[in-house]
Design brief:
alpha/beta
């Protein structure tokens, strides 16, 4: 199963590491039980799977990328790593006490089908925990000023809140919980908007390489032009006035929890 991360995943872990705060929220929202079994869908190289496992959670890590799974296995061979997707996994119906999905639903070809397939594998009373952005939130990223086409492509790929909510509810989940997340200056997992308060991060090629929007969706000419604009604005100390025009209260990302009825 060849995927984009088989192409762009080289060096991924140089800048993509589990952030302690995000890890703690995923753990608390999942509410794992001592004898439960859980699925991390779109697990990548296990950046959150492994520390969740180290906190005592029995996990299966599923990802479509063979390269990412090989890296994950080399980091922790005790976890059951499986190649698959949200719709094509090896989990039996009602076999999981919960599912976690971090920064992955925008890669699902069909979010409703993926959500339904994961709902089926969760036991009654279990929960689905997602960490994601929405297309509406991305409209408020100041990155749009410097990389307009890249962000337009990323926004088109990202589901809107209504689409996410509908997929949860149509699958059968109830009592949705939604928690806004605003980027913190000490964020350790350098995904797309990690540089919200640290714009100099985007000048680092290693950081850009770990972000799929830069490494897979971007156009070289636009990136070069945008980086030059950003570098000039930082030098002239006018970047902040540009960024402030995009200030909003929508949150930069969301934690979403869906409950499967007993």
């Amino acid at each position: 199963m060849s995927t984009k991360y088989d192409r762009i995943g080289i060096g991924y872990n140089e800048t993509r590491k589990a952030d302690p705060y995000l890890l703690s929220r995923l753990y608390d929202l999942l509410q794992p039980t001592d004898n439960g079994k859980y699925l991390d869908i779109g697990c990548g190289t296990g950046n959150y799977t492994i520390p969740l496992y180290q906190k005592g959670i029995d996990l299966v890590g599923v990802d479509p990328s063979d390269h990412m799974l090989k890296v994950a296995h080399s980091r922790c061979s005790d976890i059951d790593w499986q190649q698959g997707t949200a719709t094509e996994h090896h989990c039996a119906p009602k076999s999981m006490d919960g599912v976690v999905a971090s920064l992955t639903i925008h890669h699902w070809p069909d979010i409703e089908a993926g959500m339904h397939a994961l709902y089926e594998c969760i036991k009654p009373g279990g929960r689905m925990v997602i960490f994601t952005s929405t297309s509406e939130q991305m409209e408020g990223y100041w990155l749009r000023h410097y990389f307009p086409q890249m962000l337009a492509d990323s926004i088109q790929q990202m589901p809107a809140w209504k689409e996410i909510e509908s997929a949860f509810l149509k699958s059968g989940f109830v009592n949705l919980e939604v928690e806004k997340y605003f980027i913190q200056p000490d964020l350790q997992d350098l995904f797309l908007y990690a540089g919200k308060e640290r714009p100099q991060l985007y000048l680092d090629e290693n950081v850009r390489r770990g972000i799929s929007s830069f490494s897979d969706l971007s156009r070289k000419e636009e990136i070069e032009k945008g980086l030059k604009m950003l570098e000039d604005d930082l030098e002239r100390k006018v970047w902040k006035s540009c960024a402030q025009r995009y200030s909003n209260d929508k949150g930069d990302y969301l934690f979403i929890v869906g409950h499967k009825p007993n």
